[in-house]
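Structure tokens please, single chain.
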Amino acid sequence: MGTNQVEYLGFRCGETTRDYRLLVRHPDGGSHEFTLVIQQDAFLTHQVRYQDAAEICFLKLNRAIEACALLPVPGLPAPRLDITEADLLEYRESHAPKPRRMAPPRPAASPAAPADVQEGRPR
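Here you go.
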């Protein structure tokens, strides 16, 4: 059994949304197109960065496909999915920078011996 391939087809700007189009190609040769929608306000209020939007949509679509495959009667998600505030928060939290760990202090370096001194006697 093969795996689905997801292809990014682009996005369209509406008055209040950005609609991201993704095509899922199935191992049997079939395909389905999905539109994932992010409210423009989410970009304007810095809940999401433009460069992260396609990845957020890809991740949400993959989760939806996996969830539908586990149903008693497997199917596909709806052709239009909304990216929610919870989706955006989950993405931000999973991609937040890791806190820096304090490195133990380095031992003080001993002063280097002059190059012209060997075995305790000058050259």
